[in-house]
């Protein structure tokens, strides 16, 4: 991992840079936001580098297998390919990944189950909702189509950076993790401070502050 990558992550954690601010730094493009992925528990803030794992063909066998390689502090992005409307996993796998593999969070790109336990234990999980109907846990061979999908998604997710909060999950692609992006983070934090100062202390309205940027013409 490059030192600039760790510097960016440290800055995000230290300043609790939100998913909203991350999206702004990346040009407010929808491609960096995981659509319809929401926090299971409110008040959570997690950031880290992504470790991508997946289920396929209505079986989560591969998730159980791939979970062995998860490292501490990683954000585990858990995918489901050709699983229909089934849940990826429930509390058992969540507990193993969060407590025993010591991952930072789980971000499921499909549904989960055991909602009551995930809520009760305040697991740091983001997902697309819940269903009681889970995947099977038998071994299934991957097709060429599935291998191609996995290859493309692993290339995008592995090593990218995720910021997860009450608004959702924003992903910073690997190619954006550079000194220019760190400068953007610093600039947007400064801008937020200025805007709130203008509203809270100068008592300006948001049109003068955000649109007209009146502060640029005053001492």
Secondary structure elements and their pairing?
Blueprint: H1 3-15, H2 19-25, E1 38-39, E2 46-56, H3 61-66, E3 75-81, H4 91-100, E4 105-108, H5 115-120, E5 125-127, H6 144-157, E6 161-165, E7 168-172, H7 179-200, H8 206-211
Parallel strand pairs: 2-3, 3-4, 4-5
Antiparallel strand pairs: 1-5, 2-6, 6-7
Summarize the entry for a quick read.
The protein is built from 8 helices and 7 strands. The protein has 219 residues and is α/β, with parallel strands linked by helices. The chain folds into 2 domains: 3-174, 3-Layer(bba) Sandwich (Glucose Oxidase, domain 1), CATH 3.50.30; 180-217, no CATH class.
Structure keywords:
219 residues, alpha/beta, Glucose Oxidase, domain 1, seven-stranded mixed β-sheet
Describe the structure.
This protein has 2 domains: 3-174, Glucose Oxidase, domain 1 (3-Layer(bba) Sandwich), CATH 3.50.30; 180-217, no CATH class. It contains 8 helices and 7 strands. Helix 1 runs parallel beside helix 7 and helix 2 crosses helix 7 (179-200). It has 219 residues and is an alpha/beta fold.
**Rg from Cα:** 19 Å
Distance between the termini: 42 Å
Q: How many helix segments?
A: 8
**Percent helix among the residues?**
25-40%
How many β-strands, per DSSP? 7
| Spatial strand sequence of the major β-sheet | 1-5-4-3-2-6-7
Largest sheet: 7 strands, mixed
CATH superfamily of the largest domain, by name, is: Ribonuclease E inhibitor RraA/RraA-like
Name the shape in a single word: elongated
Number of domains: 2
Mean pLDDT over the residues: 96
């Amino acid at each position: 991992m490059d030192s600039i990558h760790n510097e960016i992550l440290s800055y995000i954690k230290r300043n609790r840079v939100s998913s909203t601010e991350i999206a702004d730094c990346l040009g407010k493009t929808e491609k960096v936001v995981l659509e319809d992925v929401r926090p299971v528990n409110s008040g959570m803030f997690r950031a880290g580098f992504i470790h991508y794992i997946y289920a396929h063909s209505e079986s989560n066998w591969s998730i159980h297998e791939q979970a062995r390689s998860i490292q501490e502090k990683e954000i585990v992005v858990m995918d489901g390919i050709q699983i229909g409307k089934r849940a990826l996993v429930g509390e058992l796998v969540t507990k193993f990944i969060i407590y025993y593999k010591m991952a930072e969070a789980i971000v499921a790109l499909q549904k989960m189950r055991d909602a009551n336990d995930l809520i009760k234990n305040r697991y740091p999980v983001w997902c697309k909702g819940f269903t009681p109907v889970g995947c099977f846990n038998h071994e299934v061979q991957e097709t060429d189509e599935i291998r191609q999908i996995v290859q493309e998604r692993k290339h995008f997710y592995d090593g990218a950076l995720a910021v997860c909060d009450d608004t959702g999950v924003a992903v910073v692609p690997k190619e954006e993790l550079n000194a220019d992006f760190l400068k953007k983070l610093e600039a947007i934090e400064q801008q937020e401070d200025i805007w709130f100062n203008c509203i809270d202390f100068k008592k300006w309205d948001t049109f003068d502050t955000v649109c007209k940027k009146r502060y640029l013409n005053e001492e």
